[in-house]
Structures are given as structure tokens and as C-alpha cells.
TrEMBL record:
InterPro entries (UniProt xref): Ribosomal_Su5_D2-typ_SF, Ribsml_uS5_D2-typ_fold_subgr, RNase_P
Role this protein plays: RNaseP catalyzes the removal of the 5'-leader sequence from pre-tRNA to produce the mature 5'-terminus. It can also cleave other RNA substrates such as 4.5S RNA. The protein component plays an auxiliary but essential role in vivo by binding to the 5'-leader sequence and broadening the substrate specificity of the ribozyme.
Biased composition (Polar residues): 55-64
GO biological process entries: tRNA 5'-leader removal
Sequence segments annotated as region (Disordered): 38-64
Source organism of the structure: Saccharopolyspora hordei
Keywords annotated in UniProt: Endonuclease, Hydrolase, Nuclease, RNA-binding, tRNA processing
HAMAP family, A to Z: RNase_P
Record's catalysed reaction(s): Endonucleolytic cleavage of RNA, removing 5'-extranucleotides from tRNA precursor
Name of this protein: Ribonuclease P protein component
Length: 145
């Protein structure tokens, strides 16, 4: 289980990460990452809604890394969706210590994730994180657990 401080909970936070962050797609999932230094680089003329302006990336970059999951009905029934979410949550929890502080992550499961094993989902997650350069290219994917 992810601690409450490590979860994205507001729809504005999800929207911010998906719209402003970088993304990496794999066959089973898509990972969106918004690093603290990316959140600060707004255009001068870009309007910022009040509720989005007060989210964590625009505060201090030393905040905790937070993660959210999107598993739509296209993945399967409620039982399948919850299974995929639990697997992804467990995989991301082990990788949290390796991610830079203040990073916001949204993991979106694709329909192929329903039939994937945890090992396959973990490999896709690691590949996406490495492509987005939030994990070292040859370093360990998991944290100290």
C-alpha cells in the first residue's frame, strides 16, 4: 500500500501531470512524469487556473514523490481493474525511493495489462522510467525493500 503522502488524489493534479509532464508508452501501460524543474518552466502568457496553481509541483521541489493510477473500464471488469491497480501500486511502491524527490507520476494501464504478469508490468514500468530519465540507465530499479 502506498502511504497517503505518496498518492495523487485530486483531478487537477492528474491533469497537470498528463498535460505538462513527459510520457513514455509501452505495450501494457503509459507513464506520465512531471519533475519539479518542469513544473516551474511555464510560458509567460499561459494562464494558470487558481486550483492548479496551488498544487505541489509549483511549491517547493523538495516535496515527496507522488503517484496516481488510471485504469479504465477498457482494461476489464472491476475485479480485473483492481487486480491491475494492486499490482501497479506494489511495483511503484518499491521504486519510490529511486525516483527524484518532488516528482509526480501518473501510470495509465492499457487493456493488455489485464493479462500481464507482475514481472511484465514491472519490466514495462522500469523501461518507461528509464526512457523518461527518472531512473538510472543501469542502476537498480527497486528501492531498499
Amino acid at each position: 500500500m502506498l502511504p497517503a503522502a505518496a498518492r495523487l488524489t485530486k483531478s487537477q493534479e492528474f491533469s497537470l501531470v498528463v498535460r505538462r509532464g513527459r510520457r513514455s508508452g509501452r505495450s501494457r501501460l503509459v507513464v506520465h512524469v512531471l519533475r519539479p524543474d518542469q513544473a516551474a518552466g511555464r510560458h509567460r502568457d499561459e494562464a494558470v487556473p487558481e486550483d492548479v496553481a496551488n498544487t505541489a509541483p509549483t511549491r517547493e521541489p523538495t516535496g515527496s514523490t507522488r503517484v496516481g493510477f488510471v485504469v479504465s473500464k477498457a482494461v476489464g471488469t472491476a475485479v480485473v481493474r483492481h487486480r491491475v491497480t494492486r499490482r501497479l501500486r506494489h511495483l511503484v511502491r518499491d521504486r519510490l525511493p529511486a525516483l527524484p524527490a518532488g516528482t509526480l507520476v501518473v501510470v495509465r494501464a492499457l487493456p493488455a495489462a489485464a493479462d500481464a504478469s507482475s514481472r511484465e508490468l514491472g519490466a514495462d514500468l522500469d523501461a518507461a522510467f528509464r526512457k523518461l530519465r527518472v531512473l538510472p540507465p543501469n542502476g537498480p530499479a527497486t528501492g531498499s525493500r
